[in-house]
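User: I've been going back and forth on whether these two constructs are worth ordering. Before I decide, could you fold them both?

Assistant: Sure. I'll take them in the order you sent them. The first construct and its structure tokens:
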Amino acid sequence: MAKVLMQGNEACVEGAIAAGLKFFAGYPITPSTEIAEGCAKRLPQVGGHFVQMEDELASMAAVIGASTTGAKSMTATSGPGFSLKQENLGYACLAEIPCVIVDVQRCGPSTGLPTAPSQGDYMQARWGTHGDHPMIAISPATVTESYMLAIRAFNLSEKYRTPVIFLMDEIVGHMREGIEIPSPDEIEIINRREAGNHGAYKFAYRVPEGKISLGLKPFGEGSRYNMTGLMHDYAGFPDNSAENARELMTRIMDKINHNLDDIVDVQEYMMEDSEYAVICFGGTTRAAIDAVNEARELGIKVGMWRPVTVWPFPDARLKALQEKLKGIIMVEHNYGQMLLEVERCMQGKVPIEFIGRIDGTVIPPSEIVEKLSDMAKA
């Protein structure tokens, strides 16, 4: 185990490489620039490839193409670039192509404040592309998590044959702290399964029990099959029947929804005896933990509850807290996007207060403590 001083964006690169990253397509965009720079330097050292693309649409397309050849692939962006990736992201969802998309969020909309923190892409991470589609999104809160959860993003992508969004933000991406990098034998790596569809036009998308396709043979290895953004049959060819569309869409949604226990992860801090909860994710987590510690010194029984897997949202885990909580404070750097999910889960049974930021500044612990004190006195 090695101890190093590392930036969040740098840790993302190293974690991705530890997971087996072999192809990156993209280019620098604040505040994700260090990811492209790191991949340009590190991938050639491990037998991988970095390609600086002409735009974000092409970047996402190149990542999809590289993944179909069997290479673990990633792109990274922020703000406007994330918007441009959405059409091809939908293609990857329907064609069931594993890949990781890193979004280091910044203050928007449009060009906004490129160097300022934000968590305004939360809803876009789930609903950015059109149509119903499966989505997994993971949000790290520390540099250590930027490393370890980057590995988990690849593992989930390969296991469930789906794109995974690594939803960072400027705070975490540019934070520097000491981390311990585990040795390779301490890390679980999940590699892609292959169905063994030798020959032409076999059932490339044939599905076993569990509703996850067995895997496509990599392009260039002797097997031929079709790949399309249209509704398709088991051989990958377009099939416009209502029955096929219903079966296909149900399957790609169920492969996520039926495996929530494996996918969903939550961090709880001092929640055992809590009467109040501060809910947060990503870069707001440290302020929330500090606020919990200060409020505890004031005699307020409060804890921190944080979705690590932000999509699918941990509905069941949050609903289980309904009976014990007297109040919730939702803290996020946006206008209230995760707040909508919390309100949906609580169903009006628990009072909820909101603290948000949309001006590029950060939320201090003192503001959370003040709100907690007012809630406890009410």
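The second construct, handled the same way:
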Amino acid sequence: MKIVAKTDKGIVRDSNQDAYAVGEFSDEVVWSVVCDGMGGAAGGNIASALAVKVISDKINASYRENMKDASIKNMLDSALTAANIEVFDFAEVKPELQGMGTTVVCAIVRDNQAYIAHAGDSRAYVVSHDSIRQITTDHSMVQDLLSRGKITSEEAENHPNKNIITRAVGVDKSIEIDFEQVDLNDDDVLLLCTDGLSNYVSNSEILDIMSDGKHYAFADRLVNKANNNGGGDNITVVIISK
């Protein structure tokens, strides 16, 4: 398995509130976590960095070879729940940080299977040479309106409330985590990203950028494209491939 990753503050923001980590347990088992912090200059940075550390530590401490699917799901749920508690409790004792939080998308890839947990609007996609499929469903106001048929896909693209999320790590005492398990073909690539990519680079542009199979270049290309298209937010990209 191969991992390439890049984070960038974009061309508008003064700081980068995204955070990520990647790791591997063997040539065939890798993991990553990507977070996008919110809550002011200090709060967003702290929330995302703390969540990434807690989740990474839990995965590294808990993963075992030959874990069953249900055990991996429980491990990811426990890791994200622990991060929620840490971020929430940290903000509770520092009034200037109250309300801070972070999105999260986290994946373990093993034996052509991807185990994905998420909260918020950071996303996971599966990309092949001729198709792109979004695996996660955004926890956002716009996605709720779209799911209920109140707006069209075209209206969702430029909705004024596009940045309002309905679920995030650290905002409340408890959190509901969504989990997906997907099969991967040998030529599939797993893409994890923050909305600094998904809001500025279309699916067709992602597919075009990743069509030549040069996996080592994908992260740089995607970040550069987001910046070329406006770069209005922090951008983080993680690419996992065989």
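Notes on the second construct follow. The helical segments are 40-62, 69-92, 141-147, 153-157, 195-198, 203-209, 215-228. Residues 69-92 form the longest helix (24 residues).
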